Amino acid sequence: MGKIIPALRRAFPYTVPVLIGYLFIGLAFGVMFAEQGYSVLWAILMSTVVYAGSGQYLAVNFFVPGMSLVQAVFLTVMVNIRHVFYGLSLVERFNRFDWKRWYLIFGMTDETYSLICTTDVPEDVDEETFLLSITFLNQVYWIVGTIIGSVAATVIPFNSEGIEFAMTALFLVLFVEMWMRRSNRFPELLGALAAVVCLLIFGTDGFVLPTMILVMAVLLISRRRLDGGHGDGEGVDDGA
Amino acid sequence: MIAVVAVATFATRAASFIAFPKGKEIPPTVSYIGRVLTPAIIGMLVVYCLKSTEALAYPYGIPELVSCVVVVALHVWKRNILLSIGVGTVLYMFLIQFVFV
């Protein structure tokens, strides 16, 4: 228990961008959910047990007559399909941890995943506790945002339009941080280019899965070039 | 319904960990993919965030473009995460609320 508070304290600075972003995106979800007639308790339940940005936005539309459970499962899996690939890139790292890793897996949102992959764990904290702290803090921000949104939707004191750009900026910054390591550049450009191409072909609603498949295919084909010779273990944990 | 959404969401996140449980040898191909996939995903996420940008109609994605350039330039220059994100976000909000209304 004694090591949790220091780990939370060390993790906090890394999570501040997510704090800002999640408060407002969570808030927007709270507003939408409240407009559907659901009380704050339902919103809290949703953000606690589902905990997914785009998944929860989508799910707001599920609470209507005629929506089947099969349909809900299908749509949820499609909107979250990228997380399968996130898991793939963390399986080796997380499998060193004990049962608590299931919370890390549960809480693997885009933002948490990106922070976990790009942050150097400080020397003086336990890696697992540190990662758990990041995941936990992010979820707290999300839940708090949801609560504010569903109880105080109408009294937001200023025009927050555009605040969601904080998340775009976070990913851009992580992109730049990763760019500093040469071996990351090809996959980074590949991911961005593949996404643009697939976005143009498949449109905003269906481009993520084709992008991931394209990326995987190119990465597998170019394995000999990319994998050759660099023996620095985890090639992704620099930056931040 | 909430339970169904929760389980479906968790399933996507847990799929890889169920396929490769603890103690099972991870094939070198998967291990390689794990190393190179993260930068590719971050690249995709940048595009994902910008996917709804209006490029062909007013304001032609100018607020996004300007803000992104500022974030990258500021970050290369100062390498301060909070500064880059803070300035970029405030600039974007200013642009869409007051300049490109």
Task: Explain the overall architecture.
- The complex is a heterodimer of chains A (240) and B (101).
- Chain A is mostly helical.
- Chain A has helices at residues 4-35, 40-49, 53-59, 69-79, 82-94, 101-106, 110-118, 127-152, 165-179, 182-202, 208-221, 223-227.
- Chain A has two domains: 4-179, no CATH class; 182-240, no CATH class.
- In chain A, α3 packs antiparallel against α4 (69-79).
- Helices cover 75% and strands 0% of the residues of chain B.
- Chain B has helices at 2-19, 28-49, 62-78, 81-99.
- Chain B is elongated and about 55 Å long.
- At the A-B interface, α1, α2, α3, α4 and α5 of A face α1, α2, α3 and α4 of B.
Quick synopsis:
Chain A is mostly helical. Chain A has twelve helices and no strands.
Summarize the SSE layout with pairings:
The complex is a heterodimer of chains A (240) and B (101).
Chain A: H1 4-35, H2 40-49, H3 53-59, H4 69-79, H5 82-94, H6 101-106, H7 110-118, H8 127-152, H9 165-179, H10 182-202, H11 208-221, H12 223-227
Helix pairs in contact in A: 1-8, 1-9, 2-8, 3-4, 7-8, 7-9, 10-11
Chain B: H1 2-19, H2 28-49, H3 62-78, H4 81-99
What characteristic shape of chain B results from the CA principal axes?
A: elongated
Strand content of chain A: under 5%
Total strands of chain B: the figure is: 0
What's the tally of helices of chain B?
4
Please describe the biggest sheet of chain B, giving its number of strands, its sense, and whether it closes into a barrel: none
Q: What number is the mean pLDDT of chain A?
A: 86
Q: What letter string, H or E per element, gives the SSE order of chain A? A: HHHHHHHHHHHH
The tally of structural domains of chain B comes to: 2
SS element count, helices of chain A: 12
The termini of chain B sit apart by 39 Å
